[in-house]
Amino acid sequence: MTPVNVASSLFFESPQSIFVRVHREIRPRTPVPPVLVEYKQFANADSHVRLEEGAITVRITDLLEGAPAPVTEALAHILLGKLYRNPAARQYEHRYRLYLNRRDIRKQISLVRQTRGRKVHLGAQGSVYNLEEVFEELNGQYFGGMMARPGLGWSHVRSRTRLGHFDPSHHMIMISRIFDDTRAPRLALDYVMFHEMLHLHYPVDHSGTRRCVHTPEFKAHEKLFPYFEEAKALLKKMW
Prior knowledge:
The chain has 239 residues and is α/β, with parallel strands linked by helices. It has two domains: 6-116, Zincin-like (2-Layer Sandwich), CATH 3.30.2010; 131-238, Zincin-like. Helices cover 43% and strands 15% of the residues. The protein has nine helices and eight strands. The chain has helices at 6-9, 15-26, 69-83, 90-100, 103-116, 131-142, 186-201, 216-222, 228-238; strands at 35-40, 47-52, 55-61, 151-154, 164-167, 172-175, 205-207, 210-212. The strands form three sheets. It has a three-stranded mixed sheet with strand order 1-3-2, with helices on one face. A three-stranded mixed sheet has the order 4-6-5, covered by helices on one side. A two-stranded antiparallel ribbon has the order 7-8. A hairpin with a 2-residue loop joins strand 7 and strand 8. Helix 2 packs across helix 3 and helix 3 (69-83) crosses helix 4. Residues 1-10 have low confidence and may be disordered.
């Protein structure tokens, strides 16, 4: 009889059998409930798990439908760990993040965000400020007017926690509507816009499982903003 290589047999497991096996590993004394694994067309690399009426339903982004079985195994440890409030071992987190951080997978994720997702915003013209005017003023002052203008929009929500963000998938800068107010200091708005413009200038650094959004070069450039400390203090005071 030819011996079976247990490690290699992992590569032939179905996603459902992987989740069942991992459930037995992390809860050996608990009967395994019925498990349903589905791949869904999410707008991001998201996956979810829930336990309802005695059955486990797993919904995985279709970006992972062709992933190697060891990656699915790592995701099973992560999702079931969250379900039972027992965090997965670091090795599984590392394996999963390493796969998602591959250049080809990052390109697929970006494409999916573009085609399936949409940016909901109020446009660049606010009741007080026009973001295109703000952008071009800063562009001329700090970037020699050479930065191509991305999409710009005010958020629907007056968020105090997410003041601004740059979405590379849609090539767009969104600014919290909380700054579109006569009571909001213009310096605070300028600083937030300048910060997001730096994200255009310095792409995210991907290395292994590492994803560095604010690189040392980014941080050094940010401190060149003439009123850096004053602007930071203003933001803290506003909230």
